[in-house]
Design goal:
Shape of chain B: globular
Structural class of chain A: alpha+beta
Order of helices and strands of chain B: HHHHHHH
Distance between the termini of chain A: 119 Å
Number of strands of chain A: 14
Radius of gyration of chain A: 32 Å
CATH topology of one domain in chain A: Thrombin, subunit H
CATH class of one domain in chain A: Mainly Beta
Order of helices and strands of chain A: HHHEEEEEEEEEEEEEEH
Number of strands of chain B: 0
Helix content of chain B: 55-70%
Distance between the termini of chain B: 13 Å
Strand order of the largest sheet of chain A: 3-4-7-6-5-14
Number of helices of chain A: 4
Strand content of chain A: 25-35%
CATH architecture of one domain in chain A: Beta Barrel
Number of helices of chain B: 7
Shape of chain A: elongated
Radius of gyration of chain B: 16 Å
Strand content of chain B: under 5%
Number of domains of chain B: 1
Helix content of chain A: 25-40%
Largest sheet of chain A: 6 strands, antiparallel, barrel
Oligomer: heterodimer
Chain lengths: 292, 179
């Protein structure tokens, strides 16, 4: 206690100086309009700065929830895309159908569902992704999966009640029909199991005009994938002389290393289309066996 | 004359001169930026023997008085308190070291020699103007304006202070042992 008093006495001049300074500055910032405005402005600026920093940290803790909310919302928007709908050919009206899906005659072709990645590998040659939606949520085999930024990820191959297994593009047995955005030429996307950053595109005809950096989209003739979603960009290409087709090295658009939120896309006509396909083959077989 | 009365009279006189003469000449005669300040000169003339408390409060009251004339409460008071706080340190540095005691009662060209006295006045003038213009500048102006204004105001003030010292030499009394 004594030391405190000694200290105060020793530096009394300084304390008086401080006191008078503070007093005059208080006068200055209280009674002068411009100074008052400036003082309040600086204080405001400072508290605003602190608030924004705090907000940044706070945001970080809410990130997960926010992500899911965003993905759900994106999904609802994706469901509204006009490309999901198509209309039956109405040029020849033979019968009046009682089941109308839409007042304009359109019906929904693609349905989007949000999902979260719970397991993912990129290191093997057969890479699978597991997402937290299953048959209880309406997921079926052969549905397409795209990442939250709209890039193709893979195909659902197996479904349990609450989870489903997705064969990623980085799977040696994965074959995806793709097309070049510029020319529309169609080829097959595969993976050689070497570098998870690059895919292989085969069966691109020699006539295609190729450049590095060209965009590759899902083809309009796929049963699983809706057309026009990006798969990757051309990184390199060379002509295979034995087949006369291009073989392309494709840089993947989706980042398979940090997949978090994805969308599962259902083609409502998948069953009908594949059934027709197999029945046609069967029919042709029969024709071959019993020529007319 | 009593020291207290004499200094009070000086301070009032200088403040009146500051308000009614120097503040009026700024617009037409000098550039609008420049206001010559000499009202704090009596504070530099206060006796060596004054206590530091007394010095600080004198400075505060003098500054505040001018502030109320100029409608800027606290602006000059802050600057005056600052120079009154610094004043003893500067005197300690610049005072003649060989003399054990000061021969004269208060700082003046005669008491301290011209060069140390001018350095003393210059440092405190620069501090006063720097701090005051800084507080003013918080509300408007750019940094270049700030520097220019400090320098130009200091130069003009120094000129006027030198003139005052030459024209009105103070009658200086020696320190005596008799009270």
């Amino acid at each position: 206690m004594r030391n405190i008093f000694l200290f105060i006495r020793r530096y009394s001049n300084f304390f008086i100086f401080l006191f008078l300074q503070v007093l005059s500055l208080w006068f200055l910032f209280t009674y002068n309009r411009t100074h008052r405005a400036t003082g309040l402005g600086i204080a405001n600026e400072f508290t605003g700065w602190v608030n924004s920093k705090y907000n940044k940290i706070e945001d970080y803790f809410k990130l997960n929830k926010e992500n899911q909310r965003l993905n759900r919302f994106n999904d609802s928007l994706l469901n509204l895309l006009p490309g999901n709908f198509s209309s039956r050919d109405t040029s020849v009206l033979s019968t009046i159908d009682s089941l109308v899906f839409d007042t304009t005659g359109r019906y929904r072709r693609y349905i989007f569902r949000p999902a979260k990645v719970v397991y993912n590998t990129v290191s093997g040659v057969k890479n699978y992704i597991q997402v937290n939606r299953g048959s209880a949520q309406g997921i079926k085999d052969n549905m397409a999966v795209i990442s939250s930024d709209g890039y193709v990820v893979g195909l659902v191959v197996n479904v349990s009640a609450n989870f489903s297994q997705v064969m990623s593009l980085l799977h040696v047995q994965s074959i995806v029909s793709a097309s070049l955005k510029k020319t529309g030429d169609i080829g097959d996307i595969q993976w050689d199991g070497k570098d998870p950053r690059y895919l292989i595109m085969k069966k691109v005809p020699k006539t295609a005009d190729l450049k590095k950096g060209d965009t590759i989209l899902t083809s309009p003739v796929s049963f699983n994938y809706p057309p026009g979603y990006m798969i990757g960009t051309v990184a390199d290409f060379k002509l295979d002389n034995t087949t006369g087709m291009y073989s392309l090295k494709v840089k993947t658009a989706a980042n398979f290393y940090d997949l978090q939120q994805v969308h599962v896309i259902e083609n409502t006509e998948y069953n009908e289309q594949t059934k027709l396909n197999t029945e046609t083959k069967k029919k042709i077989e029969q024709l071959k066996n019993n020529p007319r | 004359m009593n020291d207290f009365l004499k200094n009070t009279f000086r301070i009032i006189l200088f403040i009146l001169v500051q308000v009614y003469v120097l503040n009026e000449i700024k617009n037409p005669v000098l550039h609008k930026f420049i206001v010559p300040y000499i009202y704090y000169l009596p504070l530099l003339w206060l006796p060596f023997s004054i206590t530091r408390w007394g010095l600080l409060f004198t400075g505060f009251i003098a500054g505040l008085t001018l502030d109320y004339f100029m409608m800027t409460p606290g602006l000059h008071a802050a600057a005056c308190v600052l120079i009154c706080y610094i004043r003893p340190y500067i005197i300690n540095i610049l005072a003649p070291k060989d003399a054990a005691e000061f021969t004269y009662r208060e700082p003046s060209p005669k008491a301290m020699q011209w060069t140390p006295y001018m350095v003393y006045v210059f440092i405190l003038t620069l501090l006063h103007h720097g701090y005051m213009v800084f507080l003013e500048w918080l509300s408007f102006g750019s940094f270049l304006d700030f520097i220019l204004k400090v320098i130009s105001t200091t130069i003009i003030s120094m000129l006027i202070i030198v003139t005052v010292e030459l024209i009105f030499p103070r009658r200086l009394r020696f320190r005596t042992n008799t009270p």
